[in-house]
Write a structure and sequence with these properties.
single chain, 426 residues, 20 helices, 59% helix, 8% strand, globular
Length: 426
């Protein structure tokens, strides 16, 4: 870690002009400092427009000439999306830029003037002064496939949020007009949606009857329509305590919600297919999907967060990126309990955690390792702790598969744990 920090510090020389930029929606603030963090100017405004960016570029060149600097480095916080337009403009002008962690900026703001106050001008100065001390990250190199995957992953997450919102609205509608429906259909699957389309209100189900509703569903192409379930739904409808709804508008509302849900599910499926096709263009895709229990979409989502794993020299970089490093508060003889730093990409960490469950069920090596972590004599782990450790183990394995250009081997995975070698792992 210190070696990497020293390398970053060495990149800033006495010929480097550092520009700290505080990003906003319409008006950014910028401040120029030298390699020792000394301010070379007051903070100035940068308008989010073509003219504003051209003026910013002209100002940079003027500062370089005035202070006899041959290199320039722009730094900003990559929060939100407003920084992307400026980053694109800098790339077109061959101006290098780096990121600073927003959390670091927040934590060090009192070093400027010993005051907790925050403003755009102050943040621009603080960002600029963090760079000579090596507190920055160099943007990951990414090609068009990486960028498309990243955009697709973020868009898919937003669509999933919209889908959940619509499903919650459907459940609210059911709670009002047909609360007994959820006792027969626990999930809003295809058949449940079909029933709500044909007979949304209890009175509709009562009029059709159990056999009539079943016949209508079969005509619509639904398979395995249970007579017992239709009978239970009919009995629930007859005894329903749902509100006496204005029938016309209640039906219109549920039909609109079901149409939205169908649209989101179609879009999510199409987007998942597109993401997988993009991920297949990366060199390590075939090696990563060789792990039993990991589907193609999971690999595509992971590569969207990390890019090709070949770009990482050490798996610890991936573990840190996911926020899976351990931290502890220690002072003198007092030693606090270790916990996750969670200083990394939230989506990557969540994806890893969710992917561990199918791995345990469908991958004998991971299942054996999970059991070992929980039952070993020395320092046994709880179930959740074992899951988190397996997340880091998964990243190490995927990194090894990518760099070794090899397929998954269960026996090789457990060969370093003698307790697991007693029994053959399929």
């Amino acid at each position: 870690m210190h070696h990497m920090r020293n390398e970053k510090i060495n990149q800033i020389t006495d010929s480097t002009l550092v520009i700290g930029v505080d990003i906003a929606k319409e008006t950014h603030y910028a401040c120029a400092v030298d390699d020792r963090g000394r301010e070379l100017s007051k903070s100035w405004k940068v308008i989010q427009s073509r003219h504003g960016f051209e003026t910013f570029y002209t100002t940079l060149r003027a500062f370089m000439q005035t202070h006899q600097k041959t290199e320039v480095l722009v730094a900003f916080e990559p929060t939100g999306h407003y920084w992307m337009n400026l980053a694109r403009f800098l790339e077109q002008r061959d101006i290098p830029y780096v990121y600073v962690n927003p959390f670091h900026v927040k934590r060090t703001k009192e070093l400027q003037d010993n005051i907790q106050s925050k403003n755009d001008s102050k943040d621009a100065r603080l960002i600029g002064k963090m760079i000579p001390h090596g507190h920055y990250q160099v943007p990951r190199e990414s090609d068009e496939v990486d960028q498309d995957l990243r955009v697709a992953s973020a868009f898919r997450e937003r669509l999933m949020g919209d889908r959940i919102s619509v499903m919650n609205r459907i459940r609210r509608w059911l709670d009002l007009y047909f609360p007994e429906f959820s006792t027969v259909y626990k999930e809003l699957g295809a058949q449940a949606q079909g029933i709500l389309t044909l007979a949304p209100l209890p009175v509709d189900v009562a009029v059709l009857g159990a056999e009539g509703l079943r016949e209508q569903l079969v005509k619509q192409g639904y398979k395995n329509v249970s007579r017992n379930r239709m009978k239970a739904l009919h009995e629930a409808a007859v005894q329903s305590i749902g509100l006496p709804a204005p029938a016309r508008m209640a039906r219109v509302e549920i039909h609109c919600l079901l149409a939205q849900l169908e649209l989101y599910e179609t879009q999510l499926n199409e987007l998942a297919s597109e993401s997988v096709e993009l991920a297949k263009q990366l060199p390590d895709f075939d090696y990563l999907v060789s792990v039993p229990g990991i589907c193609e979409l999971t690999v595509a989502e992971l590569l969207a967060e990390t890019g090709s794993l070949k770009k990482y020299a050490n798996p610890r970089q991936l573990i840190k990126l996911a926020g899976l490093t351990l931290t502890a508060q220690e002072s003198g003889k007092s030693k606090g309990r270790k916990k996750l730093s969670k200083r990394g990409r939230r989506r990557l960490r969540a994806l890893l955690y969710k992917s561990i469950f199918p791995l345990i069920h469908h991958n004998s090596a991971f299942n054996a390792l999970f059991a070992y972590y929980k039952t070993r004599e020395r320092n046994p782990l709880s179930g959740k702790e074992a899951l988190v450790v397996l997340c880091s183990k998964l990243l190490k394995i995927l990194h090894g598969l990518s760099h070794g250009e090899t397929k998954f081997d269960a026996a090789r995975m457990v060969r370093d744990i003698p307790a697991l070698l007693a029994e053959p792992v399929a």
